[in-house]
Amino acid sequence: MASLTNLWTLFQYFILGIVQGVTEPIPVSSSGHLIIARELFNIEARGLSFEIFVNFASLLAVMLIYRQDIVRLIVNTWKFLFKGDKTVKSDFMFVVYLIIATIPVGIIGVLFGDVLGEVLSGTNVVGITLLITALFLWLIRNLQGRKQDGDLSAKDAAIVGLAQAVATTPGISRSGATIVASMLVGMKKETALRFSFLLYIPVSLGTGILEIPEIVQDPAMGQLWAPYLLAFITTFVASYFGLKLFMNVMRQGKLEYFAYYCVAVGLLVLFFL
Known about the structure:
Helix content is 80%, strand content 0%.
């Protein structure tokens, strides 16, 4: 009987890993889907430590896909700051804009992160915010921006950063909010996608570092290390392929598919959960 219980627990966290992995990179809200999955599978872990743990797996997948951009930005920022190479100024400024865009969510996370996670974690909130996500994805579905990496401004970065801060609400997709904002300020799809996911890196790293004490003190980490590890691996693999899928959909200009999905799931949550 105990072995069956353990297998069921492993299966539950395997599903949570898939849900987190697939929904983190696409604009449908991973936090909202984790809340839905926990409700469906009656998983009682309500703290943030599990989400932070699997978010780190998603972070590794994002960094793997964008590794060339990350290395180029680091190297060129070094060249600009310490070798005076003006030819790489656009990459240096891109890093500056990522820092600017990180500030709003950093402030919101430090001041209100725990409150938002607890107060706004109900399924009704998720259902409503998924519908809001769908609306904005629908509004930008046909936008064709012109701004590339070298055309961005501090104002653009601040607007995208504020959108990311709004996405701390469960059900509001982080990637969706930042890509919507990026395209509204005139970025090309490729630039919006790159800015959004490179912006995910400092936010995810910062959140993980700040929450290390909570993760270490969480008794579930000791009791459920095997399910957590399975969820971590599953999340990493699913995030990698989820982001590849999203990049392909963005190239094809089919963002409305995600709007339809968010409407369907939002209504199902509101009426049946």
